[in-house]
Amino acid sequence: MDKAPLTEHLVEARNRIVVSLVVVLIAFAGSFYFSEHIFRLLTAPLHFTLKFSLESPYLSYIAGKNPDLNLVFLAPAEALWMHIKISFISAFIISSPILFFEIWKFISPGLLEKEKKYALPFVFTTTSLFLIGTFFCFAIVLPFAMNFLLTYKTENLQPMISVGKYMDFCLKFIIAFGAIFELPVVSVFLTKMGIVTPDFLAKNRKYAVLIAFVAAALLTPTPDAFNQTLMAVPIIILYEAGIWASRILNRKKRTEKEKSKEGE
Fold first, then answer.
1. Is the link from the previous residue into 57 a cis peptide, with omega within 30 of 0?
2. Integer Cα distance of 226 and 114 in angstroms
3. Which residues are within 8 A (CB) of 125 and not within 5 positions of it... i.e. 6 or more apart?
């Protein structure tokens, strides 16, 4: 394990941050050029909803109850800021493989030589989980949530949604789900560091459920219990996945220790 003075760690952190910012800015420029196409894609949950069926196809998209709903902007700069937000979040998602690689490069000097070989699995796993989380939110959660919210006791109400409010709602949800899907990686990392054990995680499952709903209440852009449940349930499932992955890691460590003892 390498030891370096604090100043070297600060310089290394600065260099990694600079590289990450440059990559995000380049991705932002490309995303801004295509921001109108991304905007049209993000409005799909407004017009389509998910239909569940016991027969194939089990999931299908159908027109929602407000297929002709159009977004409006209530301030002169709202449309511009909306495109900037879309471009920034898109740039962050596109740059995620490099961002996770830079995080690994920053923490790798503090790891053992045999642990540094996990660079590729770390980048692949974190990136995949992040992208799966964002896709799951966009393809499953948002259509279901928008259909529910726009039809709940609105018989005598006409929806008129600001484009800024709608995009804030969608983008916060998408990023939050991307971050939440990293929970198994966090669990494995804490287990690897010896901070927690799989038995500890399993024993405190009931507290994890409570924390999941509290975190969902803080992360969701709306205060209603429906959207909090949509976020809390995946957190609980991912927590269980983290326990499963941590147990596999511990089993592998015990096997390696037994083999090393036999070799002695």
1. yes
2. 45
3. 185
Number of H helices, E strands in the chain: 12, 2
Torsion of CA 191, 196, 199, 204, to 10 degrees: -130
What is the end-to-end Cα distance of the chain in Å, rounded?
24
For residue 249, give the H/E element and its range: helix 225-263
Residue 142 CB coordination number (10 Å): 24
**Alpha-carbon distance 216 to 234, whole Å?**
10
φ, ψ at 194 (rounded to 5°): 80, 10
Q: What is the pTM of this model?
A: 0.78
3-state secondary structure of 162: strand
Per-residue pLDDT tens over the stretch 102-150: 888 887 776 666 666 777 787 888 899 999 999 988 888 888 878 777 7
